[in-house]
């Protein structure tokens, strides 16, 4: 791992969190200890990208994304606009409701400990997912859950918590139709009626659902999970069992590790990049290997064992 060099660090803080006393205290404490920490606050969408541009222009050695998974996504998108050699290291101050990427990395969750690690910790070069020209660092997920919430695994979480009967009733009431899609990857393809799709650089989404348990963010591979549509309560329960046994394949669930995947849909397919909603008729998901230096804890489950 690389050590933190000298230079200014910019904390790009989600405006909703700017007045939290714990954060202000952590910033003050680190500054009093001699650290060069500049704070910038976002107000609306796009501010994170603009502030990353300003940080790069100012020669910042490190940028800390202070917020949830969406804030991290916007910061990563901003960094990826710049040539690889100009990208500052990325640190994370988790302040969201789910914090899926931060939890997957096993970062500290208290502001003081998380900010100190983000400011002073060692870095590791990690991969960044690209869905066409849009960056994501954690998980792209889509299908039924993305249609009814802002993240597929949130619906899945309800389902796993015993809401199978309620989900079946919801499907019937909405006259739910599966998303017809054609998937292609280097060693195969499948045309399936999709209930759910997940493409993982990181391991979990939707508040702790481990949809990509084999994921490593420095291995050059994406995790591809797709779940075929079902038509009965018995089949739904079988899906639940198969999802609890990942990364093994099942009758309804397929799990692959691929360098890229292409997708074509008969309609506008709902897909979330790190929780941020999008719709696509077609896309190609791939990786830019070793794209960013990321601040990680000394023991990080999303890194390969060297």
Q: Tell me the helix content.
A: 25-40%
**Helix-strand topology string:** EHEHEHEHHEEEHHHEEEEEHEEE
How many DSSP H or I helices? 9
Note the main sheet. Answer: 9 strands, antiparallel
Q: What is the level-2 CATH architecture name of the largest domain?
A: Sandwich
Distance between the termini: 11 Å
Backbone CA Rg: 20 Å
Give the overall form: elongated
Low-confidence stretches: 148-165
Beta-strand portion reads 35-45%
- Mean pLDDT across residues: 88
Within the CATH hierarchy, at the fold level, what is the topology of the largest domain?
Tumour Suppressor Smad4
Give the class-level CATH name of the largest domain: Mainly Beta
Can you count the beta strands?
Answer: 15
What structural category arises from helix and sheet content?
alpha+beta
| Tally of structural domains | 2
Task: Describe the fold and architecture.
- This protein is of the alpha+beta class and 306 residues long.
- It folds into 2 domains: 9-121, Rossmann fold (3-Layer(aba) Sandwich); 134-289, Tumour Suppressor Smad4, CATH 2.60.200.40.
- The chain has 9 helices and 15 strands.
- The protein has helices spanning 21-32, 47-57, 69-80, 100-105, 111-120, 144-148, 152-160, 164-173, 233-243; strands at residues 9-13, 37-41, 62-67, 89-94, 123-131, 134-136, 139-143, 179-185, 188-200, 204-205, 209-210, 222-228, 253-258, 261-273, 276-295.
- The strands form 3 sheets. Strands 5, 6, 7, 8, 9, 12, 13, 14 and 15 form a 9-stranded antiparallel sheet that branches. The chain has a 4-stranded parallel sheet with strand order 2-1-3-4, with helices on both faces.
- A hairpin with a 2-residue loop joins strand 5 and strand 6 (134-136).
- Helix 1 (21-32) packs across helix 5 and helix 2 crosses helix 3.
- The longest helix is centred in the first third of the chain and has 12 residues, at 21-32.
- The protein is elongated and about 60 Å long.
- The chain starts with 8 loop residues before the first strand and ends in an 11-residue tail after the last strand.
- The model is unreliable at 148-165 (pLDDT under 50).
């Amino acid at each position: 791992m690389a050590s933190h060099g000298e230079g200014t660090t910019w904390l790009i803080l989600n405006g909703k969190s700017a007045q939290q006393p714990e954060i202000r205290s952590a910033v003050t404490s680190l500054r009093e200890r001699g650290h060069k920490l500049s704070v910038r606050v976002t107000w609306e969408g796009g501010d994170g990208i603009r502030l990353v541009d300003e940080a790069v222009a100012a020669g910042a050695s490190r940028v800390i994304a202070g917020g949830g998974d969406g804030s991290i996504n916007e910061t990563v998108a901003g960094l990826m606009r710049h040539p690889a050699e100009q990208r500052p290291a990325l640190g994370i101050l988790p302040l969201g409701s789910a914090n899926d990427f931060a939890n997957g990395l096993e970062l500290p969750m208290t502001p003081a400990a998380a900010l100190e690690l983000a400011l002073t910790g060692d870095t590791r070069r990690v991969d960044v997912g690209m869905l066409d020209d849009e960056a994501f660092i954690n998980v792209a997920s889509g299908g039924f859950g993305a249609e009814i919430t802002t993240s597929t695994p949130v619906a899945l979480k309800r389902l796993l918590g015993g809401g199978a009967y309620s989900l079946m009733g919801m499907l019937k009431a909405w006259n739910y139709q599966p998303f017809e899609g054609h998937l292609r990857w280097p060693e195969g393809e499948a045309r399936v009626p999709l209930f759910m799709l997940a493409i993982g650089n990181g391991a979990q989404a939707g508040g702790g659902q481990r949809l990509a348990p084999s994921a490593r963010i420095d291995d050059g591979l994406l995790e591809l999970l797709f779940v075929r549509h079902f038509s009965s309560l018995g089949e739904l329960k079988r899906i639940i069992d198969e999802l609890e046994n990942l990364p093994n394949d099942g009758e309804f669930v397929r799990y692959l590790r691929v360098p890229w995947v292409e997708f074509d849909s008969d309609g506008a397919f709902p897909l979330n990049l790190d929780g941020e909603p999008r719709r696509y008729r077609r896309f190609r998901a791939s990786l830019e290997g070793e794209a960013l230096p990321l601040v990680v804890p000394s023991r990080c489950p999303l890194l390969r064992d060297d």
